[in-house]
Predict the structure.
Amino acid sequence: MKYALLVYQSQDHFDRRDNTTIAAGRAYGEALQAAGVLVGGAGLESPQAATTVSVRDGKRQVHDGPYAETKEFLAGFGIIDVPNLDAALEWAARHPAAGFSKVEIRPLLGSHFAVGNSKPS
Amino acid sequence: MSESSTQAAIETVARNSYGRLIAFLASRSGDVAGAEDALSEAFVAALEKWPTDGVPDRPEAWLLRVARNRLTDAARHNHVRQQSETFLRQVAEEAQTMAETHEHFPDERLKLLFVCAHPAIDPAARTPLMLQTVLGVDAARIASAFLVSPAAMSQRLVRAKIKIRQAAIPFRVPDPAEWAERVSFVLDAIYSAYTVGWDSLNAASSIHQALAAEAVSIGRVLVQLMPSEPEAHGLFALMLHCEARRAARYTSEGEFVPLGQQDTALWSQPMMEEAEQHLRSAAAFERMGRYQLEAAIQSIHANRAKTGSTDWQEIALLYEGLVRVAPGIGSLVGRAVALAQAGQAASGLAALEQIAAGRTVDYQPYWAARGHLLQMLDRNDEAQKAFTRAASLTDDPALRHYLFERAVENI
């Protein structure tokens, strides 16, 4: 069962990224890897660096900035493969950003048919 | 076999085993809605087959086998991955074994309860979900008890079941580290079913009465499923003590009778005794908690049936403990009243006045308590205002009438 861990941060917290927080993020990624649950993930540049594109009537429309201007925005994401929601929550709670911002856990589309949800006991 | 006796046999299985069948199927597939659909198709098949073939020896195993076939068909239809087929095959094998041997199928209702009250489920859906899946109460009845439209309630339930499946909420009993918190979610959801059934109860609201009775039956299931959890015993004892007084709460004319004036002869002795047994079982674990404290308070009220009086000192002491573990508005108001009844009306009123105004604006018991305490202090004008306010905050006509009477009694 694959889940995306989506980290939302305020501009304020985002700007305060320093070597310590980056090191904590890296250590977290390594822990995920060591546990064999990491599928992938990355931290993201600021929304100011974002460009949004859509195609309407065959015409490409490009605009500067993120899809939505919000107080808190997506600052990074990870994809993990774990047996169920409780295990995903366990990992999400360990994310260094969970202590000051929020981590959303979203199942990946279609992955709910994957095994491991409930082993007969 | 006649159609009506088959019908009766099916109803008996549904009443006794519905929750266990759903829990068994859902705990293996991770899909509550799918389990419900499969089981209801199995019941339809039973209605068709049993009148001619006779009721099988092991009706539950028969239903499980049919439901499992439905699940397998549905899985094939949805082109699910190989792995979930493995699951379904396991379910099939288990069902087969149970049909052949006389083994009982495992009781997974505890896991189902933990899923219903999982922190990832919308709190407003937890209690309805429990009532529907564990007891088989239909959505329309749940909706009317919770004062929402049937459409809104079924949408809430559907959403919760989709969440369980899509997010893969596991069917498991929590680890010791998270046990206390997770159990409290289950207990709170059951208690909330009980209070929905109790708060606005009067002679006319049979739906509420029935729901309170359903909450008591989940409470009974819970103490069977977790016999060494003192709070489960505490909650069950609390509900039993309150249920014991049902007949005394209203006169035959439908007038509201406050606890202190109830005729104790109308209280149910067997229920009070059962409550006391569970309170004793809970005490043996030496781990106090909110529900045990609340049940202990009710136990002292129940004692009036034996002694003719109420030990308010003791009640006040228990409320002291209760506000420490569960500082909800109900316990804060209860403590203030207990202080006043124990002879400290002024301290009681002071305690009431310490409660933040934002919490009291629409809380009827606060205003009734305030009226009562002001009356004890001979501040009758203010008492009248408080009782009037309380009267306008209840949806129970009998209670409203009683509170208006209190408002004018000392003028």
In short: The two ends of chain A are 19 Å apart (CA to CA). Confidence is low (pLDDT under 50) at residues 112-121 of chain A. Residues 13 and 100 of chain A are 8 Å apart (CA to CA). The interface with chain B takes residues 1, 83-87, 89, 105, 107, 112-118, 120-121 of chain A (CB under 8 Å).
